[in-house]
Amino acid sequence: PVNANRIAEDIEALAEITEPGHPWTRRAFSPLFREGRSYLEARMKAAGLETRIDAAGNLIGRRTGRKPWLGTIMLGSHSDTVPDGGRFDGIAGVIAALEVARALSDQSIELDHDLEIVDFLAEEVSIFGVSCIGSRGMTGQLPESWLSRVSGGLDLAGGIAQVGGEPGVLAQQKRPDIAGFLELHIEQGPVLEAEREDVGIVTAIAGITRIEITVEGRADHAGTTPMDRRADALVAASQLVLDIRNAAAELAKTPGHFAATVGEFRVEPNAANVVPSKVALLIDGRAEIRADMEAFCRWLEGHVEKLATAYGVRIEAPTRVSDNLPTPGDAGLLSALEAACERVGAKYRRMASGAGHDTAWIAKVAPAAMIFVPCRGGRSHCEDEWADNDDIAIGAAVLFEAVREMDTD
Amino acid sequence: PVNANRIAEDIEALAEITEPGHPWTRRAFSPLFREGRSYLEARMKAAGLETRIDAAGNLIGRRTGRKPWLGTIMLGSHSDTVPDGGRFDGIAGVIAALEVARALSDQSIELDHDLEIVDFLAEEVSIFGVSCIGSRGMTGQLPESWLSRVSGGLDLAGGIAQVGGEPGVLAQQKRPDIAGFLELHIEQGPVLEAEREDVGIVTAIAGITRIEITVEGRADHAGTTPMDRRADALVAASQLVLDIRNAAAELAKTPGHFAATVGEFRVEPNAANVVPSKVALLIDGRAEIRADMEAFCRWLEGHVEKLATAYGVRIEAPTRVSDNLPTPGDAGLLSALEAACERVGAKYRRMASGAGHDTAWIAKVAPAAMIFVPCRGGRSHCEDEWADNDDIAIGAAVLFEAVREMDTD
Ligand SMILES: NC(=O)NCCC(=O)O
Ligand SMILES: NC(=O)NCCC(=O)O
Fold first, then answer.
1. Which residues does allantoate bind (chains A, B) (predicted)?
2. DSSP H or E segment with residue B47
3. Whose CA is nearest to atom 6 of ligand 1?
4. Which stretches within B190-271 are classed as H helix?
5. DSSP assignment, residue B227?
């Protein structure tokens, strides 16, 4: 039912709107981001959609239904990227959503529901250090304190205003009209490709828990301090990294997606001839099943105490700097997606999302679910991120069928 | 024979010439460094010494002997500091040397040899990223390429010229007149204090070998990439840090000082939700016995290959970015120092220096040796570095006696 060439053309056009020398970078709030949106807006208009920017700075294309009192079926994802990556992450979902609207027009299908195609603002961690601005903001879930986060002389309120939003009214945002929300996204993992499946129906979006730990030893002269008289923070932190990896690998073997990664690791004073005095590290934990995360955190608290004693360093109790619960997909929508896969003839599996998505925020106020399409080698957030256009087209067709199913309810 | 109060007064006065809020910082080439030198020059003059800056930017106070053809007895150390540390590191040796000259004058002792008191330029790693500028430069051992190293718009040649040196003639520097060189320094380690000894007679200055290793894994999405499909550079590098520590601790148990420290450790991309793709680390190795360093490097080369296989990462062969041999103290001077300790009644031990010193460079062209005095807790290169004035005075007395002994030869 959808046109794969049209999808390819749009994704290609957006890919070309990138920082030269840094493919494929289109950072939220940048001039390039606004250029990408101009393209999207023009394509929305060409598809007969009425466009607007909502209070949270989301770009929305709207098509009125025959019975608008039934509410809005919403499809979308995000067009911003991480630095040096994101040729398909987000944008594949925006274009697939747009293609559904075009396919409906092509076939002169009128829906009972209103339909909205959304490009959410700043899903990725942006210059303001936080993510999912648009999906949180649209649904009254953006913490007010975030509006004053500053980067390069601009605050987030100013950034939202610059793209056409209205930061002053975000606390009052609600979208009680959303009858159902669907997002297509690349898997950003290796499973679908490895299993030669077309579509992942996302049963749950893993909760993300970020945990900060500081290991404090003692700075000593690296030349003169005997090996057995040191309190080397890097040595203790290295043991911690290995132990975290092993604990996470064990939890990953039990049912439900689990991962924990030390992504940030900063050593002080980080000087050639000084025994490291301090390491600050940040753990990124993901759990489909909340009990796994609680078990991990309990283990971690006890374990750092043991390590501190063993290595003669101080380790403060781990701090959860952010902690989100897993978000299950809406049961009705999961069934609709399954039926849609059957109709399209797509080979699918139910699976969890290890990554966070706008869908998790919309799911707090409305029925929401998402599907994955395969991506090469499971690679994402890097230059070589790649999804085959035929796979995206299959996903778009599934969205199309699911929308038709949602509209009959 | 020496005046402890005079030593205390000078060390106190120099300590006050520091960056406010960053005790005790007097970085080479800074205005504060030049201010410290003005004080030193005035004190040298007050002690009846004739002052000059040599081509390498060293501040020298000279006293002519009765038989100048016998050559020069040289005493000295350095007045520059690391950032946020160095109340005694270096400066104790400069002031002790100056005190020897004053004590000789007090007692109207004329030497046969000429005597020079030296404040070497930039012993510490300076803004130009290299160390021992003055002692290398005085003896024709400063690599010419270093002169064009740039920091904040200034090159090293310009820096040397600014303090009164003559960078253009450094290649021709030789000091064939040095009959013997002695340096007093704080131990920067815990041994003398723990053993309640007054003086360490330094049998050898450990060779310093700096080894660079890069661990390359693969950047992956931390949320979606299963634990068993990662090539996490931080996990592999953490194992390497622990293995290096254990290998060094084993070598430290055999005769001869040995230490190895991972002091610099940089993670890329160092982002919360990305599996680390790269870690660059720098090992600082110290060996009193060269064979220990060779054994360590051999072990390391084989070990990184094994780690690379075990963790699915790439680790290039370790690179020795610098590699200095151990420097033994001059046997005759070690005996003279021992005799001097006996005369002063100082409790002493023979021991190695784990730290590098200007003495190592002078030793390449002349008989040279050094002594240590205790420092509290073995702490150095930090704000709480401390040496008791009485201990410095005992060391100065040992220098005084050793100079008298050297002069009789
Ligand atoms: N989908 C995605 O990459 N989201 C970014 C947030 C995260 O999961 O780390
Ligand atoms: N003595 C001293 O701290 N020298 C600095 C060079 C080193 O040994 O690391």
1. 210, 273, 286
2. none
3. A356
4. 191-195, 233-253
5. G
Atom in ligand 1 nearest the alpha carbon of residue B272: 9
Element (H, E) at B64: none
pLDDT digits over A85-94, tens only? 889 999 999 9
Parallel, antiparallel, or unpaired: how do β-strands A114-120 and A59-63 relate? Answer: antiparallel
Q: How far is the CA of A143 from the centre of ligand 1 (A)?
A: 19
Residue A132 sits at φ, ψ, to 5 deg, of 55, 45
Give dist(CA A15, CA A25) in Å, integer: 8
Atom of ligand 2 minimally distant from the CA of B286: 8
Mutation test residue for ligand 2: of A273, A274, A275, the one with most atoms within 8 Å of CB: A273
Listed residue (B348, B342, B339, B341) closest to B196, CA to CA? B348
Across the interface, do A273 and B263 touch by the CB < 8 Å criterion?
A: yes
Contacts of A275 in chain B (CB under 8 A): 261, 263
CA atoms within 13 A on the CB side of B361: 23
Bond prior to B226 in cis (omega within 30° of 0):
no
State how far the Cα of A18 lies from the Cα of A38, in Å rounded to an integer: 14
Chain B residues in contact with A223 by the CB 8 A cut-off are 188, 206, 208, 259, 284, 286, 353-356
The answer to whether the annotation marks B89 as part of a ligand binding site is yes
Question: CB distance A224–B382 less than 8 Å?
Answer: no
Rounded to the nearest 5°, which phi and psi values hold at B77?
Answer: -165, -145
* Three-state DSSP class for residue A135: helix
Q: Give pLDDT, residue B86.
A: 87
Instruction: Please state, rounded to an integer, the average pLDDT across all residues of chain A.
Output: 97
Whole-number pLDDT of residue B409: 67
- Site of tokens 């054994």: B295
Q: Is the pLDDT of residue A205 over 70?
A: yes
CA–CA separation, B78 and B131 (whole Å) = 11
Q: Alpha carbon of B147 to those of A305, B156, B159, B174: distances in Å?
A: 50, 5, 9, 18
What is the torsional sign of CA B92, B98, B101, B105? Answer: negative
Nearest residue on chain A to B276, judged by CA atoms?
A263
Chain B residue with minimum CA distance to A279: B265
Alpha carbons A151 and A155: distance in angstroms, whole number: 6
